[in-house]
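Please fill in the sequence for the structure shown.

STRUCTURE ENCODING:
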């Protein structure tokens, strides 16, 4: 299946921060953005129900393949927070 292409205009500061997140998570910036979008869609579908697509909207998925569901706490995965990082992040917020 060929992936859809989409040009994204993004503020340089956000892009630089995405580069840091992607590096931490061992992904390219493109795959990091794709993962975040998957989490947003999964969260939406948990709240409002599954978004049903037509066969025409699902090129290459005629075999019934599905996208893996996101974890319950995607932000922790997104930022790669372990217990030490969480404590440090909380200290920064409390500051």
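FILLED IN BY: designer on duty
SEQUENCE:
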């Amino acid at each position: 299946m060929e992936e859809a292409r989409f040009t994204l205009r993004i503020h340089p500061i956000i892009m630089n921060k995405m580069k840091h997140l992607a590096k931490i998570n061992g992904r390219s910036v493109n795959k990091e953005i794709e993962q975040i979008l998957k989490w947003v869609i999964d969260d939406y579908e948990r709240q409002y129900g599954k978004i049903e697509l037509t066969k025409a909207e699902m090129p290459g998925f005629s075999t019934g393949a599905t996208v893996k569901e996101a974890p319950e706490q995607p932000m922790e995965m997104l930022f790669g927070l372990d217990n030490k990082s969480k404590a440090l992040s909380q200290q920064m917020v409390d500051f």
